[in-house]
């Protein structure tokens, strides 16, 4: 079943992409959640026109994402956490905590656009990937330190 995505769906595609999904996933999740519409002839024409009109806007958004990635650069963020005697933290560090730490430094990155390369369950240095745009990905380092 072909659907047109109305919003970015992690692991599937980006807004206005035409993707092939299983019928149950499309009908029972994507369409009811408002994340996609069925890709018929008329909706494909509408999407093509929208893409054509939004091409210059998309370039500006990409440039803004690239500027944000360049301004973050090789910044290292410290995230305080409660640490036990063995160095393991209580719970784990989440994307929300990293998003708030970046916001405190002056960079507004949505937590949904952050992904960790590995689980953060002990104190130390880690790397996260920021998906600022579908063509702009940036690595940011962060340290988990004891409170």
TrEMBL record:
It holds the Pfam family Ribosomal_L9_C. Residues 64-146 form the Large ribosomal subunit protein bL9 C-terminal domain. Keywords: Coiled coil, Ribonucleoprotein, Ribosomal protein, RNA-binding, rRNA-binding. Residues 48-78 form a coiled coil. GO terms for molecular function: rRNA binding; structural constituent of ribosome. GO terms for biological process: translation. GO terms for cellular component: ribonucleoprotein complex; ribosome. It comes from the Bacteria. Residues 1-45 form the Ribosomal protein L9 domain. InterPro entries: Ribosomal_bL9, Ribosomal_bL9/RNase_H1_N, Ribosomal_bL9_bac/chp, Ribosomal_bL9_C, Ribosomal_bL9_C_sf, Ribosomal_bL9_N, Ribosomal_bL9_N_sf. Binds to the 23S rRNA. Belongs to the bacterial ribosomal protein bL9 family. This is Large ribosomal subunit protein bL9.
């Amino acid at each position: 079943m072909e659907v047109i995505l109305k919003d970015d769906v992690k692991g599937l595609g980006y807004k206005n992409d035409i993707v092939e999904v299983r019928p149950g996933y499309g009908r029972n999740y994507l369409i009811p959640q408002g994340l996609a519409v069925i890709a018929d002839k008329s909706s494909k024409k509408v999407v093509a026109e929208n893409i054509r009109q939004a091409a210059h806007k998309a370039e500006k958004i990409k440039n803004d994402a690239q500027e944000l990635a360049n301004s973050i650069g090789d910044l290292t963020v410290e995230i305080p956490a409660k640490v036990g005697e063995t160095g393991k933290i209580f719970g784990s560090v989440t994307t929300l905590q990293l998003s708030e730490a970046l916001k405190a430094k002056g960079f507004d990155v949505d937590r949904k656009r952050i992904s960790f390369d590995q689980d953060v369950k002990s104190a130390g240095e880690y790397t996260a990937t920021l998906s600022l745009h579908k063509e702009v990905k940036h690595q940011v380092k962060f340290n988990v330190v004891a409170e």
